[in-house]
Amino acid sequence: MHLVQVWALPGIPLQELLRLGPEPIVTLKSVKVQPPGGAPILATLLETNGTREHMSEAPDVDMRRLGTVLSRLSFGLLHPFSVFSARLIPKGLKTGEEMEEIVFPGPPPGIALFEGKIGFQQQTVRDPSFLVGELPPNVDGAITWFLNGNFAANSVQQVICHWIGLEMLAPLVTGPWRCTHCDSDFPECPSCHETTEAPRTVETIREFLEKNLGVDRKEYKQLYDLRCNISHGRLAMDPEGIEVASKKAARIQQLLLQAIKQALNWPVEAPPNIKPEGFTIVGVPALVMKGVVPDGDFYSQPGVYPG
Q1: Alpha-carbon distance 149 to 153, whole Å?
Q2: Inter-residue contact 153 to 282 (CB < 8 Å)
Q3: pLDDT of amino acid 189
Q4: How far, CA to CA in Å, does 35 sit from each of 40, 42, 85, 291, 306?
Q5: Which residues of 251-282 are buried (b: 16+ CB within 10 A; e: fewer)?
Q6: CB < 8 Å & 24+ apart, contacts of 126-131
Q7: 10 Å Cβ neighbour count for 141?
Q8: Measured between alpha carbons, how far apart are the two ends of the chain, in Å?
Q9: Is the pLDDT of residue 180 over 90?
Q10: pLDDT, tens digit, for every residue of 252-290?
């Protein structure tokens, strides 16, 4: 058996241990951690028994349970928590015994809501003429959304930012009411006889992606469904939602970059470019650490300290 532990700041001044069911029980308590050479810090410790046969097997599953508790605690207290250490470690270790633990020096997968991009090669450009002068407001706006998406914490946020950028560049398509059953147009209202001419937002972005950016109908539907699932609340900004969004985020990024270049009359192959050939990791990477169990309240002290 092994323990799954997460330390977070701030520390909640709990008078006694909280046990949260159902099984496997999650415990919540206040602990004083002792950074080397520093003053003790009050931290919040969440702990549960691992559900996997070995602690190296899918640790994000058990971390996810602790992350859910921490998220709901944050909501209830209207205060953010910062995870500074997490680990998986065998139970029942005694002072002086050799031990091996898996340590995360920050939010681990299953809790973290941020991603790291590795191996995405970039080609940049320094063009003084581009830095000054007027651009259409929608082009400047699309550039802003492109940058916001690039620097977003995760793929869910990135997809939304980059999709907004695409919509800023899409020429507006308008038309009359259209029956969703027979596909007939109704140029005027049958009651008041006023014109029904109005923006067609779905048709606008579909035509832009298909006609201007070369996206076929099948791919358009996949991308648009992702956008709708996020925007209309069918995909949460949690580890599962981030994993789903990450599968299409790089493609939407490339489409917006292509659209901005077209608006600037730049060749598509010209820099700046981001090659979608890297990979994405969620949270901080794990460290496998070996040593000897020290004296004291070993199971209350994290493998990595804040600061």
Answers
A1: 9
A2: no
A3: 87
A4: 7, 11, 12, 18, 7
A5: bbbbbbbbbbbebeebeeeeeebbeeeeebeb
A6: 130/264
A7: 16
A8: 31
A9: no
A10: 999 999 999 999 999 999 999 999 888 888 999 999 999
- For residue 296, the Cα-to-chain-centroid distance in whole angstroms is 38
Residue 224's CB is within 10 A of a number of other CB atoms, namely: 16
276, 250 contact by CB (below 8 A): yes
How far apart, in Å, are the Cα atoms of 34 and each of 4, 142, 243, 295? 20, 48, 35, 13
Tokens 């690039």, residue located: 150
The answer, yes or no, to whether residue 194 has pLDDT greater than 80, is yes
Give the span between the Cα atoms of 83 and 73, in whole angstroms. 13
pLDDT digits (tens, 9 = 90+) for 234-252: 999 999 999 999 999 999 9
In the structure encoding, which two tokens stand for residue 49, read together? Answer: 């028994």
Q: Count Cβ atoms within 10 A of the Cβ of residue 44 and give its class: 0-12 exposed, 13-18 middle, 19 or more buried.
A: buried
Q: Which amino acid is at 124?
A: T
pLDDT band at 114 (very low <50, low <70, confident <90, very high): very high
Our CA angle for 225, 228, 229, nearest 5°, is 85
Residue 20's SS3 state is: strand
Q: Which amino acid is it at 33? A: V
